[in-house]
Design goal:
single chain; 277 residues; mainly alpha; 10 helices
Length: 277
C-alpha cells in the first residue's frame, strides 16, 4: 500500500525529499555566502566589475553623444542608450567572475574537498549562481543610480526598470553557467580567456552601440540573427520605448530562457564530467 508520504514513481518518501531539499538549500546558501565574503576580503576582484560598467556607460554616452542625431533614433539622451549596455556587461562579468573563482578553487584543491562533503552535487552550481545573482543586483543598482545622476531617465515610469533587472539577472545566470561549464572542463586559467572573449563577442555583435538600421555589411547580418540582440533590446525597453508591451519584450524573454537553459545544462554536464575524472 502506498502511503501519503510516498511519492509515486520516485522511490523516495516525502520526508526524505524534504531533508534532501533542506541540505541542498543549506549547501547552496553556504557557498553563496563564501563567494560574497570574498567581496570584502578581495575587493580588488569585485570593485573593477562595478566600476567598469559605470565608466563604460558614462564614457560611451559622452563620447558618442551625437548618436542621438541619427534620424529615427529612439531617445534624445545617449545615456539612455548606453546605460543598459553597461548593466549587461557588469552582470555578465558578475557571472563570468564565478567561473574565475571556480578555477582558483580547482587549482588550489578546495574543490576536491567540496566534492568529498555530503553536500548535494547540484549545490556546486546553485550556490555560485545565487552569488552571481546578488552581485548582479548590486551592479545593476549602482549603474542605474549613477546613470540617473548623469541624466538617464525612464520613459514609462518606475515599471521601466523591471526589464533592466530581468535582463541583468538573466545575463548573470548565463555568464555563471558558461563560466562554470568551461571551468569544469579546462580546470585552469585557459578557460578564463575563453569566458571573456566569447562574452565580449556575443554582446558587441549586437546593436550594443548603434541601431540596426545604420549598420552595414556582415555586422548587420550577425546582429540580426544573434539572440543576445533581443536581450539588449529587453534591457533598453524602459529607456527608449514609450511603453512596455508583450511585443517589445517577448523576444528578449524567450532568448533569456533558451540560453539560460543551455548554459545551465552545459554547467551540469561539465560538473558530471569533472566528477567522473
Amino acid at each position: 500500500m502506498t502511503t501519503i508520504d510516498q511519492i509515486p514513481g520516485s522511490g523516495r518518501t516525502a520526508p526524505a525529499r524534504s531533508v534532501a531539499n533542506a541540505r541542498m538549500f543549506a549547501a547552496s546558501v553556504g557557498l553563496m555566502k563564501r563567494s560574497l565574503v570574498n567581496i570584502v576580503r578581495l575587493p580588488s576582484a569585485f570593485v573593477p566589475s562595478v566600476m567598469m560598467p559605470v565608466f563604460q556607460s558614462i564614457a560611451f554616452a559622452g563620447t558618442f553623444f551625437a548618436i542621438t542625431q541619427i534620424p529615427g533614433f529612439p531617445t534624445d539622451r545617449s545615456i539612455n542608450w548606453f546605460l543598459p549596455l553597461g548593466v549587461l556587461m557588469g552582470s555578465g562579468f558578475a557571472g563570468v567572475g564565478i567561473g574565475f573563482a571556480t578555477i582558483r578553487d580547482l587549482e588550489g584543491g578546495f574543490y576536491d574537498r567540496l566534492r568529498l562533503t555530503p553536500a548535494p552535487r547540484m549545490s556546486l552550481i546553485t550556490g555560485p549562481l545565487l552569488a552571481a545573482i546578488v552581485r548582479s543586483l548590486i551592479v545593476t543598482t549602482i549603474v542605474f543610480i549613477v546613470g540617473s545622476l548623469f541624466g538617464a531617465r525612464l520613459t514609462h515610469g518606475p515599471a521601466g526598470i523591471v526589464p533592466l533587472y530581468v535582463a541583468g539577472l538573466g545575463i548573470a545566470t548565463i555568464g555563471t553557467g558558461w563560466g562554470l561549464g568551461l571551468a569544469y572542463r579546462f580546470r585552469d586559467m585557459r578557460a578564463a580567456a575563453i569566458m571573456q572573449l566569447t562574452f565580449f563577442l556575443v554582446i558587441f555583435l549586437t546593436e550594443a552601440q548603434t541601431p540596426l538600421n545604420v549598420m552595414e555589411g556582415w555586422l548587420e547580418t550577425v546582429a540580426r540573427i544573434n539572440p543576445f540582440n533581443n536581450i539588449v533590446r529587453l534591457a533598453r525597453v524602459g529607456f527608449v520605448d514609450p511603453s512596455i508591451t508583450w511585443n517589445n519584450t517577448w523576444g528578449g524573454l524567450a532568448a533569456l530562457l533558451g540560453i539560460v537553459a543551455l548554459t545551465m545544462l552545459f554547467a551540469r554536464r561539465g560538473l558530471d564530467h569533472l566528477s567522473d575524472n
